[in-house]
Design a protein that fits this description.
Largest sheet: 5 strands, mixed
Structural class: alpha/beta
Order of helices and strands: HHEEHHHHEHEEEHHEEHEE
Mean pLDDT: 85
Shape: globular
Radius of gyration: 21 Å
Helix content: 25-40%
Number of helices: 10
Length: 265
């Protein structure tokens, strides 16, 4: 939704909305700990900070939350990640985000568009533009509550929901069961652990929480962690790290959350 002409302020607002999207799964616990009534769906600027990213307070107690994005595909192999970006369905998603009709109906808020492939598919694969035309027809059908007009060779159906940040277009994947590797999670924690003292100096809080955001496109199951035989090492590492609580959350989908550290106990 942003281009090279977007202002620095607009880009910063977009960044903050993405970060809020990650931490909003934590809001119920924050409300419980601080006896507040924060709305999960409303990104209130009064909580937005720079380092840590958000601070919540009830005047007697405060909680600072830092957000970090975990992208295992990038950490594993950058060349592999570049190849993935070139794959066919990724190109379809990227192209459809530029669709004029999609942009015209999402000026105020974005949409999540989940694409189900058509099985069996046509023997001859359609071009990126042909499939984008199929998507546009289905989106118009959803928006106007009418029947689709076009015959489809690649797309079975789409499922559309509102997104508070931007337009997200992605294909449904059966690979959602891939676990998260502990080494990737540890890498993110260590990266923020190095800055922990800075958070304390910048804004004094009673507790600091770390929210590890796992983008949907990574096709990882945030509730399943592959420790590769390092379970005891991981437990000891989490016990010793400075953050009071650490969780893994998705970016904009669902309400799942995996607390891998729940307080210093």
């Amino acid at each position: 939704m942003f281009d090279q002409n977007s202002s620095k302020e607009e880009l910063q607002q977009y960044k903050k909305k993405k970060e809020w999207n990650a931490i909003k799964n934590c809001i119920p616990l924050i409300n419980e700990c601080l006896q507040l009534n924060i709305d999960q769906e409303t990104c209130d600027d009064k909580y937005s900070k720079e380092s840590p990213d958000f601070v919540f307070s009830n005047n007697d107690k405060s909680i600072g939350i830092e957000v970090i994005e975990c992208r295992p595909s990038v950490m594993e192999c950058k060349k592999k990640n570049e190849a993935e970006r070139e794959n066919f369905e990724k190109r379809i998603c990227d192209e459809f985000k530029k669709n004029k009709f999609l942009m015209s109906i999402t000026q105020d808020e974005g949409l999540n568009i989940l694409i189900d492939r058509k099985y069996p598919m046509a023997k001859k694969r359609s071009s990126v533009q042909e499939i984008c035309n199929e998507l546009e027809d289905l989106l118009k059908s959803w928006y106007h509550n009418t029947m689709p007009l076009r015959e489809r060779n690649y797309i079975g159906r789409i499922r559309v929901s509102k997104s508070p940040c931007c337009n997200v277009v992605y294909f449904n994947s059966i690979s959602r069961c891939i676990p998260v590797n502990w080494d990737d999670i540890k890498f993110c924690i260590e990266k923020k652990e190095k800055k922990y003292k800075d958070y304390c100096k910048n804004i004094e809080c009673d507790e600091y929480w770390l929210c590890i955001c796992l983008p949907f496109g990574e096709s990882r199951n945030l509730r399943v962690i592959n420790y590769n035989g390092k379970e005891d090492e991981a437990a000891n590492f989490l016990f010793q790290c400075s953050f009071s609580r650490i969780c893994i959350t998705p970016d904009s989908l669902g309400r799942n959350i995996n607390w891998i550290k729940e307080g210093n106990k």
